[in-house]
Description:
Blueprint: H1 3-12, H2 16-25, E1 30-31, H3 32-36, H4 43-55, E2 59-64, E3 67-72, H5 74-106, H6 123-132
Antiparallel strand pairs: 1-3, 2-3
Amino acid sequence: MEPDHTDVVLSALADPIRRRIVERLGKGEATVSELSEPFDVSAPAISRHLGVLERAGLITRERHGTWRTCRLRPEAVDELGAWLGRLRPDWDRRFDRLEALLAAQRTPAPVGSPSTAPPASSASSASSASSAFTVDPQEQS
């Protein structure tokens, strides 16, 4: 799917009514009147939504006498899925890095490790400060 077509498809799917129409057509073909039933919008408004989806290449419409049936174009959905799939490795790496960072923050560093050791110049003052926070085991009861 080329970038311009991707923009058209994503723009078509930006509307919640059109997304619900696509979801419904994912279950099978439907007439225009069947598609309009769940919505509190006029028939011309549904027709405009269907036109947007058709121009984006997501659906096809066929006339059968006085009825118009709509079908989802699975290849269009596959193209969108492939485009989104190309983004996934980058996001997986980002989430892996975030997970590692959060795990490192949850795991306390061992006492005396470089992240918890006091600076060399203030070791004596840090020693006296840490003794001020030492709890006598008899006081804990």
